[in-house]
């Protein structure tokens, strides 16, 4: 996993986004049940100026990840949206998570 991640970061930093996307797609196929794979791909898409694709990726991640990881990935994407995308949309996503899961105290931090 770390080799794929570093290779994708290398391609992203050397202005080869097509190659980075290919690596991220391979990572999703091999390690699609882990949150960091989806988070790093979403971060790449937001940094590459493709917020619509990142939002579609969140929906895909919610379908592929187990139920217990949904809050975690939604929180990660809400923070990515807030920092790199639309601030209002990110804040709305965070409000929705806090409203729907009030007993998850780690969301408040």
Low-confidence stretches: none
What does the main sheet amount to?
none
Strand portion:
under 5%
Distance between the termini: 28 Å
> Assembly type of the shown chains?
single chain
Task: Report the C-alpha radius of gyration, rounded.
Answer: 14 Å
Compressed to H and E, one letter per element, the order equals HHHHHH
- How many E-type strands? 0
- Write down the overall mean pLDDT: 88
Description:
The protein is mostly helical. Helix content is 76%, strand content 0%. It is built from six helices and no strands. The chain has helices at residues 2-13, 17-31, 35-47, 51-64, 70-84, 87-100.
Task: List the main descriptive attributes of the protein structure presented here.
single chain; 109 residues; mainly alpha; globular
Topology:
Blueprint: H1 2-13, H2 17-31, H3 35-47, H4 51-64, H5 70-84, H6 87-100
Helix pairs in contact: 1-2, 2-3, 3-4, 3-5, 4-5, 5-6
Concise overview:
The chain contains six helices and no strands. It has 109 residues and is an all-alpha fold.
């Amino acid at each position: 996993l770390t080799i794929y991640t570093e290779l994708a970061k290398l391609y992203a930093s050397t202005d080869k986004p097509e190659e980075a996307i290919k690596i991220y797609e391979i990572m999703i196929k091999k390690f699609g049940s882990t949150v960091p794979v989806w988070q790093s791909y979403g971060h790449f898409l937001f940094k590459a100026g493709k917020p619509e694709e990142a939002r579609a990726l969140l929906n895909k991640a919610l379908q592929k990840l187990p139920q217990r990881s949904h809050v975690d990935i939604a929180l990660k994407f809400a923070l990515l949206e807030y920092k790199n995308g639309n601030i209002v949309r990110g804040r709305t996503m965070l409000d929705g998570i806090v409203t729907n899961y009030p007993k998850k105290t780690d969301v408040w931090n």
